[in-house]
Amino acid sequence: MEIVVVAPPAPGRLEDLKRRFFATPLQTLLSLISLTIMALIVWKLLDWAVFSAVFTTTGGPEACQAAAGACWSVIAARWRIILFGLYPFEEQWRSALACVSVVVMTVLSCMPAFWTGRRIALVWGAGTGLYYVLMKGGVLGLPYVGEEAWGGLALTLFIFVTTCLIGFPLAICLALLRRSDLPWISRTTGLIIDGVRSLPLISILFTFAVVLPFALPQWLQGDKLYRVILGSALFFSAYQAEIVRGGMQGVPAGQEEAAMALGMSYWQRIGRILLPQAMRNALPATINQFVISFKETSLVVIVGFFEILASGNAAYGTGEWRFAYVEVYAFIAFIYFVFVFSLSRYGAYLERRMAVGER
Amino acid sequence: MVSLLRNQKVRNALLQALYVGSLAATVLACVMIARRNLAEQGITSGFDFLFKSTGWDVNFSLLPATANDPNWWFFLIGIVNTLFLGTTGLVLATIVGTIVGLARTSSNELARLLGRTYVDIFRNIPLILQVFFWYALITHLPTPRAAHEAFGMLLTSRGLYVPVPNVGGTALAAAMLAVIAAIAFPVWLGRTPRLNQPFGERSTIQLASAAGALACAAILLAVGRLPDLPLLDFPALQGLNLKGGLRIPPEFSALAGAIAIYGGSYIAEIVRGGFKAVGKGQMEAALSLGLSPWRVFTQVRLPLALRAMLPILANQYVWLMKATTMGIAVGFTDFFMIVALTINHSGQTLEVIGILMAGFLAINLSLAAVFNRINKAIALKGNQLRG
């Protein structure tokens, strides 16, 4: 006797739709509500941003104001202010190149090939150095441009990069000090970390920008920009130190004991056994911390820096473009979104990639 | 001497003394220099300034404030404002986050997509940018003359005007308490496992108590009502200005709205994580016991998910509480803005920074303490969390 096994007929497209979205009355209701909301938002947004929008600057602000939709000509007219701030007009290519160097540096450090201590330090050192030379000039025939003229996206990126560059080593130091066997050292460090973590970032930035000059001798004060970066790095390192410490706690105690039994010195144990494994454990949370601190660079607008948010305020704040604030904020939000979203997608990808080894 | 340095104990003691000592010396040196610099400007250190009048005014206060009030009163106003803004923001963010988080965990693909889009967009834009955006949007609303009207509320560039009942303050507060009791008491009754029931079925008692509490609220409102005025005071245009109703200033609504939307996207992720942490076995067991989907949700999934999310939620709340300091960006007189203004006006830099730190430490610690209590009270005993 022959048994014929027949596969059940493949569901038609309509049945598939019904199964996925309209299986029960509740599902149908949910689907319909979601669909209505989506359709409404997408249609309104498209209409505002594309169909009824003005893209050219030919009509000037007046033509734009009359239109029902978005006025993208404000971006066409003011994008240089938003991206480069008050940087001298003829030199703005340098600002653009500096931004590119920072982006390239970030992309390179996302590649596993660069994940050794030396290589990552090299990439970040070179990237930041290139940025600094390009922005400041004074060498190689580039005219000098002081820090007070830096602005826009370029300044935002600079604050972010230097915050990480100073904050990351500091975080590792703080984490090591906090897990020290000597009670006074670990307790004092814990007090510093918890104290900084309990304060809002704005109050730390304010203290470093406005109050610190009172408390430092003249020769130590430095530029306001670098003081604020130091404050922001301190804040970053307090949070990052806890992440690194969490990563260290995930390393089995046997690893360090084995290293000790082999007669490795403290620095060998830390540098070759503990930190590589701890950093691996801490990587997803670290990426998340980078994402958060990139968003938080926008807070320096409060202590009076001309970063991208302030330059956006200036771009629509003057005279004829006063009505076009939504477009300017949408543009800045889009820039932030591109950076932050790609970084957080990368973090999610890393998390998945590492989970493979754990199975 | 050298042999002494070789001794591990001595070296450890020296190392610790060096570390703590150098930190203390740095802080001390900074304070000394600051005191000298301030003294040169004619500012003496000490806390006497707390009792001097400020000479400036605040634009938003829940407590009575004039320029003659002393500095300590202004600090109190700042803390109350921060707590008020923070609590409003937290409650709104929790509501938004719960809805979006439920959408993200729902079995419906479209709802999931909608929730995910929301989270992706609002989580990836800095909070301060959102604050600026909403503030600009509100201050660009039409003038009171051409105000948008909806449900008796007026939307104008001067803020949001909402109707308020014409009822005395005490009576209003008591009526609110009665309404809360009308909701809370039946819920509590429902959760009490065994009830001696001389009065009849549980549902009857629940309904009766709710109706009783609501009746109390109605009586309170009727008694406390101001004479010769309609029950609700609607905002209306009078001349060039708006009269009546309660004005919610643009600064407050922009901040509370931005915190609700931004915080909501973070809380949505926490809610989703909480539901994901509930073991599949628990739900299958509940379903196989024949519970209805609704009861599986309210009696198995939700209580377990709540326990999983509470510690993370507490961290998020502390973060959002600190985010109220963005008030200074749009001119809302929260605690930090009062601190910054006091430094500008009185010059008592060190003392005021100390007050700032103490204030935030107190807020954070008390929030953490509250959540630890809740956490401990609802923690599962034994090993019920096994998947």
Describe the structure.
The complex is a heterodimer of chains A (359) and B (387). By secondary structure, chain A is mostly helical. Helix content of chain A is 73%, strand content 0%. Chain A has 14 helices and no strands. Chain B folds into 3 domains: 41 residues; 254 residues, MetI-like (MetI-like fold), CATH 1.10.3720; 68 residues. In chain B, 67% of the residues lie in helices and 6% in strands. Chain B contains 13 helices and 8 strands. In chain B, the strands form 3 sheets. Chain B has a 4-stranded antiparallel β-sheet. A two-stranded antiparallel sheet of chain B has the order 4-5. The longest helix of chain B is centred in the N-terminal third of the chain and has 35 residues. Chains A and B meet through helix 2, helix 8, helix 9 and helix 14 of A and helix 2, helix 4, helix 5, helix 12 and helix 13 of B.
Rough shape of chain A? flat
Helix percent band of chain B: 55-70%
The top-level CATH class of the largest domain in chain B is Mainly Alpha
Radius of gyration of chain B: 27 Å
Distance between the terminal alpha carbons of chain B, to the nearest Å? 62 Å
Summarize the biggest pleated sheet of chain B.
Answer: 4 strands, antiparallel
Q: Cα distance, first to last residue of chain A?
A: 45 Å
Helix/strand-derived category of chain A reads: mainly alpha
Oligomer: heterodimer
CATH architecture of chain A: Orthogonal Bundle
What's the average pLDDT of chain A? 83
Mean pLDDT of chain B: 82
- Largest sheet of chain A at a glance? none
CATH topology of the largest domain in chain B: MetI-like fold
- Helix percentage of chain A: over 70%
Strand numbers in spatial order across the main sheet of chain B:
1-2-3-8
- Shape category of chain B: globular
In the CATH hierarchy, what is the class of chain A? Mainly Alpha
So, the CATH homologous superfamily of the largest domain in chain B? MetI-like
